[in-house]
Design brief:
Oligomer: single chain
Strand order of the largest sheet: 5-6-7-3-8-9-14
CATH architecture of the largest domain: 3-Layer(aba) Sandwich
CATH superfamily of the largest domain: P-loop containing nucleotide triphosphate hydrolases
GO molecular function: ATP binding; ATP hydrolysis activity
Number of helices: 9
InterPro entries: AAA+_ATPase, ABC_transporter-like_ATP-bd, ABC_Transporter_VariousFunc, P-loop_NTPase
Largest sheet: 7 strands, mixed
Number of strands: 14
CATH topology of the largest domain: Rossmann fold
Protein name: ABC transporter ATP-binding protein
Order of helices and strands: EEEHEHEHHHEHEHEEHEEEEHE
Distance between the termini: 13 Å
Organism: Actinophytocola xinjiangensis
Radius of gyration: 21 Å
Shape: elongated
Structural class: alpha/beta
Strand content: 25-35%
Number of domains: 2
Keywords: ATP-binding, Nucleotide-binding, Transport
Helix content: 25-40%
Amino acid sequence: MTVLRATNLGLRYTKRRWALAGCELDVPAGHVAGLVGPNGAGKSTLLNLAAGMLRPTEGTIEVCGGIPGSGTDQLAKVGYVAQNTPLYAGLTVAEHLRLGASLNPRWDADLARRRIERIGLDPNQAAGRLSGGQRAQLALTIGIAKRPELLLLDEPVAALDPLARRDFLRDLMEAVAEQGLSVLMSSHLIADLERVCDYLVVLVDSRVRLTGEVENLLAVHHRLSGPRRDVDDLPDGQRIVSARHTDRQTTLCVRSENALFDPLWTVGELTLEDLVLEYLSTPEATRPALEVLR
């Protein structure tokens, strides 16, 4: 089952500026997917389109089997926590929960109450007087208690200290395990994504450059290093992601599903951060076409 499908999806802000263009994406249900890319790549735009807060200029997007924002039933399927964790500063924690209950037909009041008690939030505390970590936890509580099928998170831990980030991600994974949530989370913090994500979407220059299950992506990407050589004669099935040369040495990042047997190369593994950086730093003209690995 696909929880999010985009076909030639695009959003244009001006005649010349596209926030997202030609986006082709299928995110299967049951995953915690990390959405990564540089600033201005279109991550927030994609999440806003998926939440129904924006309408595409071209193409289509389908979320949980329906058109985003198309009605009450569709809105109930999607939870969204924006980057600035928007809350009503003058409302208390308890008032936020009552508002959530009145707006969401699937609202789980017991879940919301238990989470607020466990993380130690005072129900009578105004949201404007909460710390950044507490606001993020309150926003996550509202998103989870909505009982969505898909939870969209836009840089949810960017402004949090390491302890608050750890607590937020721990609680997120507990909710995923208990509710069977699908999650699409954008973040610049690759170390955090490594802890919680099993699916990856790399967005560069408003286009999807790489997508697939993290385990599979890491298995087929390799770092090769050896004496400087012409890389045009690599065996079939090896696609170059990036190439760097010094006077004496060549270092490649290649994608290959076949075993690598060449005594001239030293073969190394990549971390998730290595892989993401290779795709983000490769010039547009030399980037390989989109690769989907499931």
